[in-house]
Protein backbone atom coordinates (compact mmCIF):
# COMPACT_ATOMS: atom_id res chain seq x y z
CA UNK A 1 0.00 0.00 0.00
CA UNK A 2 1.09 3.54 -0.65
CA UNK A 3 -0.03 7.02 0.24
CA UNK A 4 -0.03 9.31 -2.79
CA UNK A 5 0.31 13.04 -2.18
CA UNK A 6 -1.86 15.18 -4.46
CA UNK A 7 -0.58 18.65 -3.56
CA UNK A 8 0.33 19.35 -7.19
CA UNK A 9 -3.29 18.76 -8.28
CA UNK A 10 -4.64 21.20 -5.71
CA UNK A 11 -1.97 23.79 -6.54
CA UNK A 12 -2.82 23.54 -10.24
CA UNK A 13 -6.54 23.96 -9.52
CA UNK A 14 -5.77 27.19 -7.71
CA UNK A 15 -3.03 28.32 -10.09
CA UNK A 16 -0.76 28.69 -7.06
CA UNK A 17 3.01 28.34 -7.28
CA UNK A 18 5.02 26.11 -4.97
CA UNK A 19 6.82 29.19 -3.64
CA UNK A 20 3.59 30.99 -2.80
CA UNK A 21 2.15 27.85 -1.21
CA UNK A 22 5.30 27.24 0.82
CA UNK A 23 5.30 30.79 2.14
CA UNK A 24 1.62 30.69 3.13
CA UNK A 25 1.97 27.29 4.84
CA UNK A 26 5.26 28.12 6.55
CA UNK A 27 7.44 25.53 4.81
CA UNK A 28 10.49 25.85 2.61
CA UNK A 29 9.97 25.18 -1.10
CA UNK A 30 12.37 22.23 -0.68
CA UNK A 31 10.13 20.68 1.97
CA UNK A 32 7.07 21.18 -0.24
CA UNK A 33 8.98 19.35 -3.00
CA UNK A 34 9.69 16.46 -0.60
CA UNK A 35 5.96 16.22 0.12
CA UNK A 36 4.94 16.56 -3.55
CA UNK A 37 7.38 13.91 -4.70
CA UNK A 38 6.24 11.39 -2.10
CA UNK A 39 9.57 11.27 -0.29
CA UNK A 40 8.18 12.40 3.07
CA UNK A 41 7.94 9.74 5.77
CA UNK A 42 5.49 11.72 7.91
CA UNK A 43 3.42 14.89 7.98
CA UNK A 44 2.56 16.74 11.18
CA UNK A 45 -1.14 17.35 11.70
CA UNK A 46 -0.36 21.04 12.16
CA UNK A 47 1.28 21.09 8.72
CA UNK A 48 -1.61 19.18 7.16
CA UNK A 49 -4.02 21.63 8.79
CA UNK A 50 -2.08 24.60 7.40
CA UNK A 51 -2.03 23.07 3.91
CA UNK A 52 -5.80 22.48 4.03
CA UNK A 53 -6.40 26.02 5.30
CA UNK A 54 -4.31 27.57 2.53
CA UNK A 55 -5.84 25.39 -0.19
CA UNK A 56 -9.33 25.42 1.33
CA UNK A 57 -9.61 21.66 1.02
CA UNK A 58 -9.95 18.50 3.06
CA UNK A 59 -7.04 16.17 4.00
CA UNK A 60 -8.47 13.57 1.60
CA UNK A 61 -7.98 16.02 -1.25
CA UNK A 62 -4.23 16.01 -0.53
CA UNK A 63 -3.63 12.39 0.48
CA UNK A 64 -4.86 9.22 -1.21
CA UNK A 65 -4.28 5.60 -0.26
CA UNK A 66 -3.54 3.35 -3.23
CA UNK A 67 -3.28 -0.42 -2.96
CA UNK A 68 -0.08 -1.26 -4.78
CA UNK A 69 -0.48 -5.01 -4.25
CA UNK A 70 -0.57 -6.29 -7.81
CA UNK A 71 -1.24 -9.93 -6.95
CA UNK A 72 -4.79 -11.12 -7.68
CA UNK A 73 -6.99 -11.92 -4.69
CA UNK A 74 -8.90 -15.21 -4.59
CA UNK A 75 -12.18 -13.38 -5.29
CA UNK A 76 -10.78 -11.68 -8.40
CA UNK A 77 -8.79 -14.66 -9.67
CA UNK A 78 -11.86 -16.12 -11.35
CA UNK A 79 -11.90 -19.18 -9.16
Automatic annotation (TrEMBL):
InterPro entries for the chain: Cro/C1-type_HTH
CDD domains reported in the protein's UniProt record: HTH_XRE (cd00093)
SMART domains linked: HTH_XRE
HTH cro/C1-type domain ranges (all copies): 13-62
Source organism phylogeny: Bacteria, Bacillati, Actinomycetota, Actinomycetes, Pseudonocardiales
Source organism, top-level taxon: Bacteria
Protein name: Helix-turn-helix transcriptional regulator
